[in-house]
Design brief:
With about 600 residues, the chain is α/β, with parallel strands linked by helices. Helix content is about 65%, strand content about 10%. It has a 6-stranded mixed beta sheet. It has a 4-stranded antiparallel beta sheet with strand order 2-1-4-5, with no helix packed on it.
Amino acid sequence: MRKLKHIIGFALRYKGYALLNVLCNILYVVFNLLSLLLFIPFLRLLFSEQEITYEKPAFSFSTEWGEQYFNYLMGSFVRENEKLDSLLFICFVVLLLFFLKNLFRYLAMFFLAAVRHGVVRDLRESLFNRTMDLPLGYFSEERKGDLIARLTNDVQEVNYSVMSGLELLFRDPLSIVISLAALFFISPQLTLLSLVLMPLSALAIGRVSKSLKRTSGKVQKQFGELVNSIEEGLGGVKIIKAFNAQTFIKERFREQNNRYNELNVRAHRKLDLASPLSEFLGAAVMVTLVWYGGNLILNPGVKAPIDGGAFIGFIIVFSQVMRPVQAISSAWSNLQKGEAALDRIEEVMQARDSVAEAPNARPIENFQRNIAYQGVSFAYGKKPVLNDIHLEIPKGTSVALVGESGAGKSTLADLLPRFYDPTMGTITIDGHDISQLKIADLRNLFGIVTQNPILFNDSVYRNIAFGMDEVPMAEIERAAHIANAHGFIEQLENGYYTTIGDGGGKLSGGQRQRLSIARAVLKNPPILILDEATSALDTESEKLVQDALFRLMENRTSLIIAHRLSTIQHCDEIIVMKDGSIIERGKHQELYDRGGVYRKLIELQSFG
């Protein structure tokens, strides 16, 4: 259970509540034990089944002195009161003990609730923060639905299984230790015998728990597949309907849902087996003790180490020991089930960060001279994407990247803000290797506008001011004016405070793109990356967006990725890429007159 150290680390933040929980659990165990031990001697004295002790016994460290002194106190009360009054007193004492026992049981759970849910909250926050810090390459390899499952179902499984198990593991061992001390006080011989028998039942439970962990791991993985299918179905519902693929999607979901159900049934059957198996094995241990102790007492030729009354008390207390033993068995099974979820969480927490900040990273506040790619190569796994790129972008210039899909244009741009690191070569800004700069400072230099604008289910204001606090409305409106967005924003129901829906779904494509441009304008970065920012727009929207982009690019260094070559003819340099290499470079007219690949691309688009 090595992975539990992380959970315990979170729990230590709530050590005050944890200590109160332990104290209340100790008092709960003590009052529970007293409610059992005191009730029988009271009734024995009340109904004259035991001789009343009239003289106070001399003190000694022995079982006999404890019994004699207790009989002396209880006998005095019975002798000095009527039997009905004594019965009423006995009932009151027992009721008080049960009240105190359950009061401290509730208080233990009351204090533990803050620990339990606090740990789950902190774990979920830590996992989400780690997810946000991972490089983009991680998300291209992992399914979004599976990550959502880890953040939701797996973390909740830690709440149900691990925290419930830890609750029992911290409480019930106290009950066992105190009860075993009482049993040892009554009969050391029978107690030692019980300690030999109980581990045998624990061994059987351990085999079931090990099998449960394997099945639970499959359950968590399958749930990730199921959530991924849901996410893909909801996200692609338009295409699904357009291609009449509802039957295919429904059938795929049905198969995954059935598989998840089968694994869940198997896991819960194994989990449910732990409690009855533990109870049966506990009963077998108790029957063995009854048979052995009964033989000692009933056999006239053997001097029994315990009398009949003490033996009855021993069995009653031992029956209470078996309850926490069974609970610990169930807790262990729960922990095994929860460990499968912890394994999946641990995979994200321990994921290798391929874009890590250097230990002594340097700050950078502005961009002054140039950007340079020096012998840069990059590969996704074993698949090469860029090959020995040499490129310089002076400050204030605009450079366009063109070429067929898969030529490496977007990857070349993604290397600049260190979404990925090159496998060979270096990229420098003003002569500084970007791998030696503070990542946050580096990314502050860039404004990025993508083909598919990323917007959030929030107000127009918050989307434009994304990542900034308390931005004056005048600055928001100025950015919107530059992006040609102010007009349509004012026509919205609540203007700048209108919620735009999931992914900006309440807006048109052109409106969404202009909002993303306004966001870039507000950030006021010295370097722009425009990744096919107009390729998905109609002609009218493209004109508005292109006009906004020209305003945005004024006095800025720009790296532009474009399929529509008519939008980049004004650029200071055009880079033509193919299969990860630069094959042509120059200004528009120069490349066109050369009659190479660039001219062929122009003619293909003109013909289209």
